[in-house]
Write a structure and sequence with these properties.
The protein has 4 helices and 8 strands; from the N terminus they run ααββββββββαα. The protein is α+β, with helices and mostly antiparallel strands. It has a 4-stranded antiparallel sheet. α1 crosses α2. The longest helix is centred in the last third of the chain and has 24 residues.
Length: 149
């Protein structure tokens, strides 16, 4: 796979829930810190109980998420791995192994925090997006709840 331009990385990041509401200039900033990485077939991306320090976006290929020897599910193009790793330092609950040669975008937590520190408008937009999604999840939970008003 060819190296993606910043614009191409921004377009791929627009599909990520966390970044979907960002304006184009903000997406370009996030894309500028996204590194394109390749993982060989059967290579481990990260192991269960290891620190999660990055969010990954699958560009091409598939990553199997496993617990012990059981395959739980796989993640493919335009799907993400480690959605909360940018904000949460908890260890991974699964092991991620490439099912085939896989290309990903990797956004490291430290680079992400540096970007947020330098660009308060991006911070504000991301927090608004997070709260919007949290409210939507709460609404779904309340709408499908026990019927109590």
């Amino acid at each position: 796979m060819e190296e993606l331009s910043t614009l191409d990385r921004a377009i791929r990041l627009q599909n990520v829930d966390l970044f979907s509401d960002l304006k184009t200039d903000m997406l370009a900033l996030v894309a500028s810190i996204a590194k394109q990485v390749r993982v060989e077939a059967d290579e481990t991306l990260f192991e269960r109980d290891s620190a999660m320090e990055a969010l990954y976006v699958v560009l091409d290929g598939r990553i199997a998420m496993r617990r012990d020897e059981a395959r739980l599910f796989s993640v493919g193009p335009d799907e993400t791995i480690g959605n909360w790793a940018l904000f949460d330092e908890q260890p991974s609950v699964v092991t991620a192994i490439a099912e085939s040669e896989t290309w990903l975008l990797r956004i490291d937590r430290e680079d992400f925090f540096d970007l947020l520190a330098d660009h308060s408008d991006v911070s504000r937009a991301l927090f608004q997006a997070l709260f919007k999604r949290a409210r939507a999840l709460l609404k779904v939970g309340l709408d499908s709840g026990d019927g109590a008003s």
